[in-house]
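Because discrete structure vocabularies remain unfamiliar, it helps to consider an illustrative case, giving the amino acid sequence and backbone structure tokens:
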Amino acid sequence: MLIREEIEQQEKKILSPNASCAVDSRGRLKDEEPCDIRTCYQRDRDRIIHCKAFRRLKDKTQVFLSPQGDHYRTRLMHTLEVSQTSRTVAKALMLNEDLVEAIALGHDLGHTPFGHAGERALAAVCPLGFKHNEQSIRVVDILEKNGEGLNLTWEVRDGILNHQTSRHPATLEGQIVRLCDKISYIHHDMDDGERAGLLTEADIPPHLRDLLGRSTRERLNTLIHDIIRASRGKDEILMSAEVRDAMAELRQFMFENLYTNPKAKNEEIKATAMLQELYRYYIEHPEAMGSEYYAMITQKGERPERAVCDYISGMTDQYSIAKFKEIYVPRSWEKY
């Protein structure tokens, strides 16, 4: 018996009846020979970790644009924290850790430079619209491996596409990532906000501190334990009403006091204008994107607006700045 088959049998014996076992996967977009060692979800995880889009996450903004310090989260660190938190919940609920990990590691592959500011910038200027969860699917289906895509399983793709609050993943593992994505950014964005001196523990409403905890560590612990207690034995990933409402109130507090804080966001206007100007330039000069993206338009029939969004959303923060300077800043000015 192959090692993969042994693992698949172990999943059937050990995991919850509500778990998504690898042997029951709905499969891939294109059929391929299974691995002899890894299950399909383990294979998806490895493909995501080794892809170029994953590596670029280390140089993409989470909240703070160009922070002065080594300990502020990047999009990659956010992704890893979502993965760790999701696996903790999945293991406690006897669900499929490999599926959870693959979804978590892939959920933000389509994110723009400069975080949600970049996403809003492209959505505003592109008539086709732009959403980072949909772009993540384009990355894994179309853009990676020189246009071949990663050919991930249906369950991983569903979890990536539906990881936002307004959507509903088909698997419990996808539902875990959806909740842990929110929990993770509330936790680490508060931590970064305190590090930047924009928030203090005393700023948080007392009733939220009493219920959720008096430090970022305590609040993370409270939220994770609440999910596990509320979801055990259920066919849905839940939170208690009291903690869910408190988390929503804490999230609203952060929007009002951190995410829209001028000190944290004073560079967003510049980043937005820059990305939108790059978009307009490449719409007029698609050949300047390079052969891979230009060929999407000329050979594969992709609409220029979508190909340009593919190109810009794949940029890191610093690469987008470099391209803007290359296009618009005369070289003789650089010394000034």
Remarks:
- Residues 152 and 162 are 15 Å apart (CA to CA).
- Residues 172-195 form the longest helix (24 residues).
- The mean pLDDT is 93.
